Amino acid sequence: MVLRSLFICRATLPEGFFEGACDMHSHLLPGVDDGFPTVEKTLEGLALMERYGFKKLKMTPHFMKDYPQNTKLVIEEKFKAFCQDHGNNVGVELSLGGEYMLDSCFLDRCAEGFLTLDKEKTLVLCETSYMMADPQMKEMIYEVMLKGYQPVMAHPERYNYASMPLYNRWKEKDYLFQLNLLSLAGAYGDPAKMKAHELLNEGLYDYVGSDLHRIENVDRMISAIRLSTKETDRLLQLFENNKQLD
Ligand SMILES: [Fe+2]
After folding, report:
1. How far apart are CA 88 and CA 235, in angstroms?
2. Looking at CB atoms within 10 Å, which of 8, 122, 172, 189 has the fewest?
3. Each residue of 80-106: pLDDT tens digit?
4. Which CATH code fits 16-243?
5. How far is the CA of 2 from the centre of ligand 1 (A)?
6. Under 8 Å between Cβ of 184 and 225
7. Contact between 38 and 73 (Cβ < 8 Å)
8. Alpha-carbon Rg for the chain in angstroms
9. d(CA 178, ligand 1 centre) in Å
10. Is residue 30 within 8 Å of 37, Cβ to Cβ?
11. Which residues have their alpha-adjacent CB atom under 5 A from ion ligand 1?
12. Domain residue spans of the chain
C-alpha cells in the first residue's frame, strides 16, 4: 500500500478548475460568528471567490451554544440586510444556509426550522467538536431524520476521534459527507489531510465546501493541493453535486 502510493502521480489543480462552481459552506456572513468580522472583509472574501471563478456561494453561519444569539430569524434578517446593501456589487450569487453543532442547542434549532442546503429543505449541515462527539449525537440525528431531515456531516476528516469504521457506520445510517477543500492541502494538519485523501479515494464524500473563515493563506493552500487523476475526477463530481443544491 505504501509502495503503491509512492508511485501515484499527483498534480496541482488545473487552471480554471473552479470556473462556475458553487461553494456550499462558508462563514462569510459578516459579524455573526468566528468567520468574517466586517462587511469590508466579507467583500474581500467574495472578490477572492469570484476571482477563482465561483458563481454561487452559500453563507452557512454557525448555530451552536457558543452563539446563542444566532437564531434563524436573526440570521435571516442579517443575510437579507447584507444582500440589500451589497448584493448588487457582488459577482457571486448568494444564498443562506447554516452549520449546526450537534450540541445541547441542536434540537431547539430544529424546532425553529433549520436553514437547509437544498430546495427540498431536507439537507442540514451538521458538525461535532473536533475532539469528541456529543454523547447524544446519534439520538439527536435520529430525531431530526424522523422529521424528514438528512444530515450532511461537515468536514468529517477533521474529527480527531473518527476513523474508517465510524465513517462507514455513519454512511450506513445515510449521513452525507462534506469535504473541506483545503483539508486536501493540509490546512488542518496531516492527519486530517490523510483522512481527506482516503475518504475521497473511497468515494465517501457527497459535497465539497471551502468552510472559508478568512482569506489569508487561501491562495497558498489551493496551490498546495496535489491530487491523483482519480481524486481530481472525484472532486469534480463533488462540485457537480454542489450544483444540485439551490
Ligand atoms: Fe464551518
Report:
1. 31
2. 172
3. 999 999 999 999 999 999 999 999 999
4. 3.20.20.140
5. 32
6. yes
7. no
8. 17
9. 10
10. yes
11. 99, 211
12. 16-243
* 34: its cell numbers: 468566528
First-to-final CA distance of the chain: 40
Question: What is the dihedral sign for C-alpha 18, 210, 153, 200?
Answer: positive
CA distances from 104 to 39, 143, 223 (A): 30, 14, 39
Q: How many CA atoms lie within 13 A of 245 on its CB side?
A: 34
CB 70 within 8 A of CB 32: yes
Listed in sequence order, the residues at least 6 apart from 180 whose beta carbon sits closer than 8 Å to its beta carbon are: 25, 154, 155, 157, 158, 187, 188, 196, 208, 209, 210, 211
Grid coordinates in use for 29?
Answer: 456572513
Interval 28-44 mean pLDDT: 98
* pLDDT tens digits for range 44-91: 999 999 999 999 999 999 999 999 999 999 999 999 999 999 999 999
Please say whether the dihedral angle defined by the alpha carbons of residues 26, 42, 235 and 240, taken in this order, is positive or negative: positive
Quote the DSSP letter at residue 185: G
Amino acid identity for residue 86 in this structure: H
